[in-house]
Amino acid sequence: MLRNALRKDLLLNARHLWGILPWFVWVAYAMSEPDAGRITAVGAGFIGSLMATTIAAREDKLRTSATLASLPVRRRTLVQARYVVAIVVGAATYLIVAAMAALLPWSVQRAAELVELKTVLLTLTLAGMAIALIMPLVIRFGLLGVVVFLAAFQVVGVVLFVAADFFGARSGSRLFFGTVERGIAALHAGLGQPGPIVETAVVVGISVWLSFRLSVFLAERRDL
Amino acid sequence: MTPEFALELRGVRKTYPGFALKDVSFTLPRGYIGGLIGPNGSGKTTIIKLIMNLIRREAGDIRVFGLDNRTAEVEVKSRIGFVYDVPGFWDDQSLDSQRRALGAFYPRWSDETFHRLAREFALPLDKKYKALSHGAKTKFALAMALSHGADLLIMDEPTAGLDPVFRRELLQRLSALLQDEGKSVLFSTHITSDLERVADVITFIRGGEIVFSLTRDELLDGWAVVKGDERVIRELDPRLVKGVRHRAFGVEALVSDGGAARRAVGSRAVVDKVTLDEVMVLMAGENRHAA
Description:
The structure holds two protein chains of two kinds.
Chain A: H1 2-12, H2 14-17, H3 21-30, H4 37-53, H5 55-61, H6 65-69, H7 75-103, H8 111-114, H9 117-166, H10 172-190, H11 194-221
Chain B: E1 5-16, E2 19-29, E3 33-37, H1 44-51, E4 59-64, E5 67-68, H2 73-78, E6 80-83, H3 95-103, H4 111-120, H5 134-145, E7 152-156, H6 164-181, E8 184-188, H7 192-198, E9 201-206, E10 209-215, H8 216-222, E11 224-228, H9 230-234, E12 241-247, E13 250-255, H10 258-265, E14 270-273, H11 276-284
Parallel strand pairs in B: 3-8, 3-9, 6-7, 7-8
Antiparallel strand pairs in B: 1-2, 1-4, 4-5, 9-10, 11-13, 11-14, 12-13
């Protein structure tokens, strides 16, 4: 049944997933920029996963949720398929960027860098956490869930910048993005050692598992 | 042992703000066509959604071929063909893509049946769903529902928005399904003439409560409309009177026993056979019998 649910998600939402294409135009350009390969590949995997999490929102908008719930398949299986598709699409996007790094004539990236274990693990970590955070919202609230999440994110961002300015930082945005960048760099460096790998895998694994349980709980209780 | 009923609802409850479905109970025997009628907002769609487990019931029991519709959800749904009042499919996908993606879920799916129905309904399989008319969308939903060997068809207002020719064709097809294959059908509708044409069992719902669930013959042969002046109508046994309407020339009363009403009023009032339309109007009307 999971196979049918995956097939359905990919067959009927392929057009939606083509929305990632413009990202590849930027990737093609970035391949000519020195040192842009890793961040581009990680970003692509992250964006691919995010795009796939919004399949539920699209189906909500098309009012197909009731049609899906009338099929002989448990809602749990449909939710499971959503998580698998998000991971598969993220992985596929990442691999396409790695292939572009190797094959595009103007690429100055070393493809081997992009398939390094710690870079792959960093992508999995970021994409996994994004999926874990967004999926329950999308499954429970559909398109509205995504919009509310993004709006809340904007509000939190503005509050952080204002607070940083208020407490005397020269530039709130610089402070914020600097912190995020240093955090990601530290995580990337750490993922080269066995201890942090295990710790990160446990945190991401538990987060995705809890998110999945919550999504199933919400999906099974949702009136359509 | 084969269960006697295709569908059984016992004491089913569901509450929304401003509306409640109260202890709904009725059955649909195997091989019968059941019609669910009632005014707008009476709870027809809610009942159908509860049967399909699209919404969660608060109390009661729903069984499809003897199986609980929640614990045996997958098996129950593989035996049901479902047509929603506003069919929801993927707008930007062709009918054929949707057939491939959704048909795979059904163990008894038949591409042959689907293509035969698509030809009969003149469905353009290569066209996107959004390019279809409302009627064609319903036909597509119907072709999907009829292509997986369902034993029970459940349809919410399937004839709404269809032209009279296809409506008649659809009803004939439903009757043929029963004669040829022993399937059962439950459908809700506002169009009482559709029910008179095909329904074996008629269930009337009003304000979230089942008012009656009777065979068509019990209803159309047993019930009657008494037309006379108010004094005569007041002499009727109040237990028989199901609805009253005041007209310029007198009063009309819907009674559940035409024979008893005839004996009670004699020649002082006219006792006519009832039509489903009159049942709908008299039972849904505001002038309930006060006695």
